[in-house]
Write a structure and sequence with these properties.
Elements lengths: L2 E10 L2 E11 L4 E5 L6 H9 L6 E6 L2 E2 L14 E4 L12 H11 L4 H11 L19 H13 L5 E5 L7 H17 L3 E5 L3 H7 L2 E6 L2 E7 H7 L1 H6 L6 H13 L10 H20 L1
Parallel strand pairs: 3-8, 3-9, 6-7, 7-8
Antiparallel strand pairs: 1-2, 1-4, 4-5, 9-10
Helix pairs in contact: 2-3, 2-4, 9-10
């Protein structure tokens, strides 16, 4: 399933918030959407979901124009799941079971199919069946977040939009949640669009990154190409590079060596720079 924008613009009250954006969203990738506040990130993903019915330009799905209603406004795209910035605010049912069952029931699932779908989705967000009778509003923030995400995943979307999904979570909970989502994305060959200001998370999980500024798409590159080969482009937008990339560049500068990496994952970068740093320290000790 390919989603393609050609010269898409969006304006509110005479102000352009998305400016002639053209891109293709590939299948089976974790694509992070970054940029300073007001860059157009949330508007971009809302366009893809079909939440902004009036756009200029062309939106195509599988090489066909995005479906429109009788007034020629773009319809909501059902194959794309959307998890908002505070997804726990999407919860409305009186038990976790009812919350998770709502989407499948709306799709016409039988009682048995609903139960099977719930059983399959719970491990994907790190939950067990013990939580099903619980009242969602009495759970912790992290548990609410997982339930809200599970309620979207259970509808089996081809694309999952995550708009700042880790805001307000502690580091351990953030890492566990993102790791489980990465497993889902890779195992099911799904696409994740991850809107975030957390550059360390972007570096750790991204296959590709889209960089926005003032409504324009400045770059759509893999993580290494953007953060390492085109880091100056990121810094010009006012964003900080991930700390691991900053450390990599510092060691390169001090050692006068070019350090080749195949990803921006923190563990790989540390493994690459540690021997060089240790050798540099040993030379000072001689």
């Amino acid at each position: 399933m390919a989603y393609e924008l050609n010269d898409v613009s969006v304006s509110y009250e005479g102000r352009t918030v998305l400016d002639q954006v053209s891109c293709i969203i590939p299948t089976g990738k974790w694509i992070s959407i970054i940029g300073p506040t007001g860059a157009g990130k949330s508007t971009f993903v809302k366009v893809l979901k079909g939440l902004i019915p009036d756009i200029q330009g062309e939106y195509r799905i599988n090489q066909h124009p995005c479906p429109r209603d009788a007034r020629q406004q773009i319809k909501v795209v059902p194959d794309i799941g959307y998890v908002f910035q505070h997804p726990e605010h999407q919860i409305f049912e009186t038990s976790v079971f009812k919350e998770l069952a709502f989407g499948p029931k709306m799709q016409g699932f039988s009682t048995q199919q609903v139960e099977e779908a719930i059983e399959l989705v719970l491990p994907k967000v790190g939950l067990t069946k013990d939580i099903l009778p619980s009242v969602p509003f009495h759970l912790s923030g992290g548990e609410k977040r997982r339930i809200a995400i599970a309620s979207v995943l259970i509808t089996n979307p081809k694309v999952l939009i995550l708009d700042e999904p880790t805001v307000g979570l502690d580091p351990v909970t953030r890492a566990a949640l993102l790791t489980q989502l990465k497993d889902w994305q890779q195992q099911d060959q799904r696409t994740i669009l991850f809107v975030s200001h957390q550059m360390e998370e972007v570096a750790e999980y991204s296959d590709e990154i889209m960089l926005f500024q003032e409504g324009r798409l400045l770059a759509h590159l893999d993580a290494v190409s953007l953060f390492i080969d085109n880091s100056i482009l990121v810094e010009r937008t006012g964003l900080n590079l991930p700390e691991s990339i900053q450390l990599l560049k510092l060691v390169e500068e001090l050692s006068k060596e070019r350090i080749e990496v195949s990803s921006c994952k923190e563990q790989e970068i540390i493994a690459k720079i540690l021997p060089i740093w240790q050798a540099r320290g040993a030379s000072y000790g001689e």
